[in-house]
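Lab notebook, bench 4. Still working through the backlog of constructs that have no structural model yet. Next entry is a single chain of 181 residues. Request: give me the structure tokens for it.
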Amino acid sequence: MNYFQYPNYYPYGYNDMFRYCSSNMQYKRAVAQITGGPLAPDIRGTAVFTDVPGGTEVSVEINGLPPYKPATGGNPPIGPFGFHLHENGSCAVGSSEDPFTSAGEHWNPNNQPHGNHPGDFPVIFSNNGYARITFFTNEFKVPQIVGKTIIIHENPDDYRTQPSGASGKRLACGVIQGLMQ
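Model written out:
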């Protein structure tokens, strides 16, 4: 069918007419499938990002988190877990002692100090290895984060130490992918 001979015919609706051939998608939802690396191979989870009025709703569900261990002998605790948006779209493991460095640093497009940039998320509290959290942020909209990564860190974020809040090693990673609506 030659759609150009029917100037008022839009099979996907007027607003969706060109969305299937555009490389600059305006996603309204995105998802990251989070997978544990060599330091915490049992972690599995999903983060869903949804555009809402004034910002983005982030919903996360995680299984397989390591058990909490309090700080001892000058070592930081394991858990609650730092949770951040990182700048690159790669979850390549790299070194098994320091995995996921390919994800880069925290996403900080406005060059704000740590604790106040869009890559800072609330910590994740494990309940026998399981966690679920939903929160709102007005720091970004979904199209801005597609292609970035989500990282779960070993230690809680102190929201002060520059540049990453002393949140420790990277336990799990997921690349954020846009979803068609």
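Notes after review: The two ends are 25 Å apart (CA to CA). Residues 1-24 have pLDDT under 50 and may be disordered. Flag for follow-up if needed.
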